[in-house]
Every structure is written in structure tokens, then in C-alpha cells.
Amino acid sequence: MTGELLIREMHDADKPRERLLNYGPDKLTNQELLAILINTGNRNESSISLASKILKNLQSIRELRDVTFEELTSINGIGKAKAITILAFIELAVRMHTHSREEDKYIRSPKDVSDILMEKVRYYNQEHFIVLYLTTKNMVIEEKTLFIGSLNSSIVHPREVFREAVKRSAAAFICVHNHPSGDPLNIVS
């Protein structure tokens, strides 16, 4: 037993779900929000305690986006289903943050490329070579990661870039790669 109260032993006003309903999600701690996702604890630990175990080795909440299935399931009380729920939530949060309200994305300037990709590639630990394939009106047909390299290099062959462009009948394409050890984005059109 951890010495911490199980959620069923807490006063109703202190339970994460009730606090969310009464005060709003913005008033909950990261631990409480994650506990709601975890849903249930085990015989000896509450979902709050399990959430605390997940968060304790992170320097910031942003690092949660890099947590792996293996790291989650290595925590006693976090099984396959809970790990999948947490990873699905993380991906949903990333998508909400990186996708614009409009389904169709148009490239009018380098800033548009940055707006589409910056949040996604900012925290990658390896170089990613990404290509945006465009229509004649510069609407993004597809965003495709063609190569994933090491910390400081990515080997790219032009035929792969062009093959994908022909496959999509793209009128143009923009090549982008990140720098995990420094400048986060490099754009070449």
C-alpha cells in the first residue's frame, strides 16, 4: 500500500472526475487529468498514484509525447489497455495541436510550411526528411516522411522524392528536414 488514499476512499469533492465537473478541466493538475485517462487503479494504488509514477521522470509535460508503450507497461498497474489509451490520447493531442481548422492546407510562404510541421518535428530525436506534395494551386496533397536518419544526418535519394511526386500527380513539392541538435526546421522548395 502506498499510503495514499484510493479514489473510492476520497471525499467526492476531491475526486478528479468530480473536480473536472465542478471546476473545469483547466483547474486539474496534470496528474489528475492523466488519472482520469487511466480510469482505474489496482488493488493497492489509485489511478492518481499510477499517473504520478508516469509523470515523475519527466522534466515537463511535453515529454509525455515521447513516452513509449514499453515504458508505460513497465509501470506496475499500467497494462496494455491503459498504455494504449494513454498513447491514443497523446496522438490525438498532437493532431489537435498540429492540424489547422481547415482541412485543405495551402502553402503561400515558408511560414505556412512551418505552421504545418514545426510542432510535429520540434521534438524528434532523429533527423526526419519530410516532403509536402502540392497541387498546381499549392494545396497540400500529402505530407510524407520519406527518410528517418540519425541525430545529425539523413540519407535521401532524389528518385524516392520524385517517385512519390509522380505517384500523386503532384505539380510541386517542398522538402523539409529537422535538426534535432539545433535549428528545428530547414525548408527547401
From TrEMBL:
GO terms for molecular function: metal ion binding; metallopeptidase activity. GO terms for biological process: proteolysis. Keywords: Hydrolase, Metal-binding, Metalloprotease, Protease, Zinc. Transmembrane segments: none annotated. It comes from the Bacteria. Residues 106-189 form the MPN domain. PANTHER family: DNA REPAIR PROTEIN RADC (PTHR30471), UPF0758 PROTEIN YEES-RELATED (PTHR30471:SF3). Belongs to the UPF0758 family. This is DNA repair protein RadC.
